[in-house]
Amino acid sequence: MEQTEKKISHPLLKLNYKRTFLIGFAFFGILLLWQVYDSWCPTILTELFARNIFGLAGGEALDDQLSLEVQYLVGIMMAIDNLAALILLPIFGSLSDKTHTKIGKRMPFILVGTLIAALAFPFIPLFFHFLPDSIGGLIGVIIMMLVVIIAMMMYRSPAVSLMPDLTPKPLRSKANGIINIMGYFGGACATFMGFGFVLSDYVRNPDSWCYQNIWAIELPFLIASVLMIISAFVLFFKVKENRLAEELRPELEEGERLAALEEKVEDDKPMPKSNKIMLILILIAEVCWFMADNAVNTFFSLYVQYYLNCSTSSSSILTVLGGVFSVIGFWFGGVLADKIGRKWTISMGLFLYIVGAVMMCFAWPTQNAEGVYQLPWILYVVFIVKGFGIALVNTCSFPMVVEFSSAKKVGRFTSYYYAASMGAQALTSIALGGLLYATRSYSTLPIYATVFMVIAFTIFLFVKNIKSKVVKTKRGLEALDTD
């Protein structure tokens, strides 16, 4: 049965947009690095496996058959990275809950994780550039990827936990929309770098300016590392974790009272059965929708390159388009959740993504009048629809998970959410890599995404829709108050 609590207004609960945007610098750094990682590392691994395992010469193009065989190995390697994250996320999330320092409980993990990741990240292309035809180059790339993954897991749960740490529960959907907008700004920075540094030209086009040019492949990684460090320092100097936690204590306590839950959360008691069932359903559905979306994100550049026969820069154009509509969706999702509840906002987003994935099934290699391959027009519509849809999902799904947490366990429940997403990425790399190998065609990518999104949508229909009580938000100049 759907449950809706009586709507009331409480003067204590006011979302401070300036503070929320500043907290969003944590997510800016995460998605910035992750976008470069997902866009470049699969292709780097593809080339290294092709050269060192299958004996392909440098600059020689992969044929369709060989690329699909290599992708199975790439899928396994990407999965190993994420399986490590699946173990480490809960560890670092729980550790940060129990940490108490002069700079806060999250900030030490954010600063150390940022430094390690930023130092290791630029070494990935260096190993590829200087040792492309050596097994040592392949091993070096894999080791650096693992170091980055471990450092990002140290960083990720504590960084994302800052938002629920400093935001009352009824305000978290709107706040999470803002956090995600900041993250997409980071992803956009990485995507725009893809226009100037085309990886497909680097690895296979001897006539291009960037063929075997170290800066063509090093600069995106280096810039990502520098911007990530800057974002961490902005967070450190502008968000005083301990002081804010103390100042916001009355608001946070009131947020607990107004939470969208069937039964109240208490630190010293086991989670109530009804809450536990809802949490499990949400996490299972989350695994399914991340299996679909991560499959598209991770393998789309290869889909464009080897199935549609287009340059990898073409995928950057679509990523920007999807990002623009995701930003719109993040803002709209927070408002919509206040009116119809988080469940139906997420359900609407999943349905839109299904529509986009089905449309993608009808995208085929397309040539213009001159015989040059170009992106099918339908993909532009696909990225608009799915970008807006996944934004609605992401705006509300994380707040739904941490809604079940007390103030003392935010890091642990944050790690549940991200462990589910990273576990899905590990599973989808293996599953889709095997499917591509078995079918010998990248055309199965949108079918795979459609199936898992339909499963997620079906599971989510069983989640109860409990709306938070209506609260006020700061508007105009009031929203820009300093802390």
Write the layout of secondary structure elements.
Layout: E1 3-4, H1 17-23, H2 25-52, H3 64-98, H4 107-120, H5 123-130, H6 135-165, H7 172-196, H8 199-204, H9 214-238, H10 241-247, H11 249-257, H12 273-307, H13 312-340, H14 342-360, E2 366-367, E3 373-374, H15 378-402, H16 410-439, H17 444-460, E4 466-467
Parallel strand pairs: 1-4
Antiparallel strand pairs: 2-3
Helix pairs in contact: 1-7, 2-3, 2-6, 2-7, 2-9, 2-12, 3-6, 3-16, 4-6, 4-9, 5-6, 5-9, 6-16, 7-13, 7-15, 12-13, 12-15, 12-16, 12-17, 13-14, 13-15, 14-15, 14-17
- Helical content stands at over 70%
What is the count of distinct domains?
1
- Range of strand content: under 5%
CATH architecture descriptor text: Up-down Bundle
Q: Please name the CATH topology.
A: Growth Hormone, Chain: A
Given the helix and strand composition, which structural class is it? mainly alpha
Number of distinct beta strands: 4
The low-confidence runs, each spanning 5 or more residues with pLDDT under 50, are 1-11, 470-483
| CATH C-level | Mainly Alpha
Helix and strand run = EHHHHHHHHHHHHHHEEHHHE
Largest sheet: 2 strands, parallel
- CATH superfamily placement: MFS general substrate transporter like domains
Average pLDDT rating:
82
